[in-house]
């Protein structure tokens, strides 16, 4: 049963991630009074890329080819250990805790950066240096948030965090939880490359993540893109299921409720999609150095959560 | 903690977050609006305290706060701002934006430590660290920015912090609290006049040239 649910969760993430990105793109175009591509465009792109040939830069090492497969498998591993469609651990749940999950995200990002440096492409180097500079501030924020939730729930298990927030209204409404949630939302914007941090245009002025995969083509680019969609979708799920709205996640292994929740979960994600579209269409891009102000504010919010905890002595 | 303490905690930390936002913001008009919202929040807090404790003078204070800090002072500042359009943006903060945000955070932590090491022995509640942190943040807002408007707002933030101390020391007489409100009005009016006078004497100021530095 648990193994079946693990496979179901993996398919849910892997197959619906491109659709979610497609919906975001379509809605953005509609807001801009344009018709926009089909919501299935990302699937068409992936199919096209899987059929194309792979080009490898002369200077690149074998790691260049290995990196997309490694990152993709790390994201697949993450789908098996996070609370997405169930609030109880699945077969691979005990493999890592929350900090371990963060480390897997970090490992995928590091592999991507090393591979980008390996291409010897100027743009890839530029993107890597920008991503590292911002990551140096945004990664500690995630750590502080995890520590704060660990303090709230006395554990570092995402499933327990979900259960505690689902059952305790006091903790759900506490300022500690909301400061940490807001900080996580700001980091979510940074990590998913949304405006005002990153604009996905062709100009190199604002490129961060996009620049790192500049030399990739064919199957490897497809895997990078698919992995990127999955990362995006996973982070959205973690934000909704663990932090912002932890309700209705099934706590018992009951197939009917899990299937029903899969639909509810996607509706929750669609709410977040609408929020993202509003942000994308309202904010303009910051200058590169202003990104640090944004990340600094997120760091402050995460720290304030800790300060509230000390001020109240943990009594919410 | 009782419900009033919870309300104080919520408003207090939102005030701290709003000062951080002021440090982040470069447009003076947004800083003034943020200050206005923060003052209304304090007014709402006093309103709730007044209603629950059945104390009329706190209700009067809440009304005075909303009227002077929430409405009049921001309105007056925006009126001066409309005349001096070139002041509308902080062009040369003395400390960089992201470093000032982080310093402001450190100051909040220092405020907490200062309180827990000294005053917390005499006052039972742990909440007193919030006004202290807010006051130190206001001071830092004054010294980190070169625009007179932001400096004035920094001073007002300090006064707001003083005002919030009223909750920690409930015996504070009405005349003192009301005095702070009237005090503020005087300070803002005089500062407004000084800003206008300085405009007449120093014609364009040096700020115009500073902007070309890039």
Q: Explain this structure to me?
A:
The complex is a heterodimer of chains A (316) and B (214). With 316 residues, chain A is mostly helical. Chain A is built from 12 helices and no strands. Chain A has one domain. The mean pLDDT of chain A is 89. Chain B is mostly helical. Chain B has helices at 3-24, 28-53, 56-83, 97-117, 129-144, 148-168, 174-201, 207-210. In chain B, α3 runs parallel beside α7. The longest helix of chain B has 28 residues, at 56-83. Classes of the chains: A mainly alpha (316), B mainly alpha (214).
Strand percent estimate of chain A: under 5%
Distance between the termini of chain A: 38 Å
Q: What is the succession of H and E elements of chain B?
A: HHHHHHHH
The beta-strand count of chain B equals 0
Helix content of chain B: over 70%
Mean pLDDT across every amino acid position of chain B: 81
Number of helices of chain B: 8
Question: In total, how many domains does the architecture of chain B comprise?
Answer: 1
Number of separate structural domains of chain A: 1
Oligomer: heterodimer
C-alpha Rg of chain B, in Å? 18 Å
Largest interface: A-B, 20 and 22 residues
Shape of chain B: globular
- Outline of chain A: globular
What Rg of chain A do the Cα atoms give? 19 Å
Helix content of chain A: over 70%
**Quick one: biggest sheet of chain B?**
none
Q: Look at the helices and sheets of chain B and give the structural class.
A: mainly alpha
Low-confidence stretches of chain A: none
Mean pLDDT across all amino acids of chain A: 89
Name the features.
heterodimer; A: 316 residues; mainly alpha; globular; B: 214 residues; 8 helices; disordered C terminus
Which secondary structure elements does this structure contain, and how are they paired or packed?
The complex is a heterodimer of chains A (316) and B (214).
Chain A: H1 2-31, H2 41-51, H3 63-81, H4 98-118, H5 122-153, H6 158-167, H7 169-173, H8 175-191, H9 209-212, H10 218-244, H11 255-282, H12 291-312
Helix pairs in contact in A: 1-10, 1-11, 2-10, 3-4, 3-10, 4-5, 5-8, 5-12, 8-10, 8-12, 10-11
Chain B: H1 3-24, H2 28-53, H3 56-83, H4 97-117, H5 129-144, H6 148-168, H7 174-201, H8 207-210
